[in-house]
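Problem: given the chain below (644 residues), write out its structure.
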Amino acid sequence: MKSIIVGTAGHIDHGKTALVKALTGIDADRLEEEKRRGITIDLGFAHMDLPAPNGETLRLGFVDVPGHERFVRNMLAGVGGIDLVLLVIAADEAIRPQTREHFDILQLLGVQRGITVLTKSDAVDADTLDVVRLEVEDFLRGTFLAPSNTAQSNTHQTDKQQKIIAVSSLTGAGLDDLKQAIVAVGSEALPRDSQAIARLPIDRVFTMKGFGTVVTGTLVAGTIRREDELEVFPTGRRVRVRGAQVHGRSADRAVAGQRTALNLVGVNTEDLSRGMTLAPPATFETTRRADVQLRLLSSAPHALKNRARVHFHSYTMETVAEIVLDRAQQIAPGDGAFARLKLPEAALLLPGDRFIIRQFSPVVTIGGGVVLDAAPILRTPELKEFLKILASGSAEKILEARIARRQHQGISISKLVAETGWAKSVIEAKLDSALKSGRLVEAGDLFLHSPALESLKAQAVRVAGEFHKKNPLVGGISKEELRAQLNATPEVFEAVAVMLGREKKLEVTGDLVRLPGRGVVMKDDEAESKKAIEEAFVSAGLQVPALPQVIAGLKIDRVRAQKIVTLLLRDKILIKISDELLFHRSALDTLRRQIARYKLTSSKIDVAKFKELTGVTRKYAIPLLEYLDRERVTRRIGDAREIL
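Solution.
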């Protein structure tokens, strides 16, 4: 069963609600004020099933919108997710202001399919109806609703000739023809992707007795099942789906392209509102910035100035946005441009989302466009080329561009899902070719652009070489210091180190990284000093001198001497057992043998016996015993040590 969302559009009192009722038997005016005033104020909904020629059932969900200029904001909340529009024009009034504004909105939103319906045909004679038909044909020329093959090529018009169908909701005349046209056009509409990540923009929130909190909306992508956990964007609240309805009937699941009602657990009506969106938890990220491609209507009253504030509408969401134009101070009516939107509060926007902008005051529709990037980074000279790829590139090129702009920081697949709105399986399939060709590289959980990785590798070799020049007495740069200088994530750094090691451009030994074959390079006086330091501690045994005293007797400066000591400590020739005491490893090895021989006569040793055994004072005895405890040679028990 194929599901199609049908929206109405047109001027107030042109019979949109009456037409929906005539087609479906459902009165979409649900508010008491609408009944009393006789006009549609908010969105209304209806549904019906029609048989298609191929034997398939076409399930139609109708979104009826208000036609009054004061309620265009409500109209905008309903038409964002439609697949097919019924442009309703009353035969006794023809084209009116809201006919034009609604039709501008439909074109800005990229609606590609629809039917023009002349209602109230019973209210005029045949000659008048023909005149109105000619006026409408002229109005629609060159658009996706053009009643002939004069539509512009970029509207993807089918070869079938579009019809203008005259009907009367009062007498029923023309309704069968309209139903046939709906089936024909609806059958051509591409089904929405039920395998995509689910997204339900909320258009109604209410409480139902015996059920609790209920929300409704058009499921624009994916599938939502009973008991699914969802996240409310932008608030981040988690909810559970207790039950679902599709077209007024209980269902185990709702799929993309269906009008959907969800009974939610874990939230009250006060926590929800029109404009919020339901989606799987921890999948998307909200934003206050978005790079877009926008177009100003040729009928816009003024040029759009840089940093202008506008009313911004996308799906059911409405907010105020500041528009920062790219390298321009304004755009003229009829022109387009790249721009960055700045929102006062976080919202959920994804690439491909269509939007409408309305003048701040007086409030009229002036343009619209499409979101290109809802995760923008700093504006750079390359931004325009990047946005051009997002606007017209293939999925593969878009993904490669998104990865390339992250340079050597890389990006995870979960971030790519959040940035694009595409499912993980789709992204993996689209990346396969670039990974196999080597244009992209995986580093742990991250994807990197190969040129960025090669640049980082060259930088790593350069930094290591510079370190050797500045620090000839150090065996190499520490891994953490090198990573910090490269400003690389641990995952990327490890990948770079492995690659450079495999290519024999760097060597990694323990915590040190060095150029192949490079180590400590000493001058004659430094080598002499190293030998002097080592001999000073070897000859001292366990009664070692203070390090400053040893350094003071050398022929080199203190800084170089300290580096030599660091080298001796790194190579474990000297061992530091306290803040003030360093011992030669040979002395400590001798001590271990002494303790082992002493164990043959006694399993325990105290401080006094230790001093007697080694010939050291308490100054050395206590630190040495604590060192033996740490090395698990001894274990302190009270005032004595057990020899292990």
